[in-house]
Amino acid sequence: MNNQTLKPPTPHGHTDPRESFSGRILTDTQYGEAQAISGILHAEIHNSGTFKEKLGDYAHAFARTNRFDASRAETTLRDIFRAQHGMTMNEMREGLAAQEDQIRLDDPTVLQVKHAVSKIGTQIAEGDKINFNRAYSENAQGLAAEFGITNAGAKRLMVQVHRDETGGELYDWGKQLEDEHYRPQIEAERAERGSQSRSSQSSGSQSRSSEAGEFETASHTGPDRADNGYGQNQDGGQEKGASRSYGRGNGYGNRGQNGGRQSYARTGPRR
């Protein structure tokens, strides 16, 4: 069978999820959450071919935040999923598994898989800090879309074809490429960031030292007879031109050079 003719399972009868049995009784917030979880479960099925563990986790979380039991939450999520994707979660899983079972490693298929594997090496060698896991996952997704299977199934094909062609393991080959290309880029980036950090710290220390020197110089300079902030000099006399009138005294005046009391009370009518 020519694998190029394989197609994903065909959905049957889409329903507006908002008007589904469970969708119509949800609040807008609850419906939005259910739709988001449905999308996560859809991605998980296409990635790994499983959904029950993640469905259970999200159903419990959905139930806790919305104050209804986990069984009702799971039913709601299943209902929304079916209305949104035109099939149940299990039907989607079974369809993808059936597609993988039909694949035969004939020449055209092997060529497609070998091309996907070679792109892993190209991405790691020529890309900007791309590790094996990232390149492996991206090319598995592309191959899975071509064959209408899960990402996990595409990875199994890549492992098998690489093993048949080279006698080695895909993982070991990818990690060797990482050591040759990815890790030197990461080490160079780490060294550059360390150098920039040290340079920044050095500049900050110099700036603080300069500020401290300016403060020390300022604290040792200035007039011999400093103004005390109220127009008086250190001898108790009032500086020339420093005229201050604060009205009636409040009993806490200072004596100036003429022996008189200088009041600093607020001005205003006497109470």
End-to-end span in angstroms?
A: 108 Å
Work out the helicity level. 55-70%
Helix tally equals 8
Instruction: Please mark out the parts with pLDDT under 50 across 5 or more consecutive residues, or reply none.
Output: 1-10, 225-267
Task: Compose a concise summary of this entry.
The protein has 271 residues and is mostly helical. It has helices spanning 28-48, 52-66, 70-85, 89-102, 107-126, 132-147, 151-166, 170-219, and strands at 254-255, 261-262.
Give an overview of the whole structure.
The chain has 271 residues and is an all-alpha fold. The protein contains eight helices and two strands, in the order ααααααααββ. The chain has a two-stranded antiparallel ribbon with strand order 1-2. Strand 1 and strand 2 form a beta hairpin. Helix 1 (28-48) runs antiparallel to helix 2. The N and C termini lie far apart (108 Å).
Topology readout:
Layout: H1 28-48, H2 52-66, H3 70-85, H4 89-102, H5 107-126, H6 132-147, H7 151-166, H8 170-219, E1 254-255, E2 261-262
Antiparallel strand pairs: 1-2
Keywords, separated by commas or semicolons:
271 residues, mainly alpha, two-stranded antiparallel ribbon, 62% helix, 1% strand
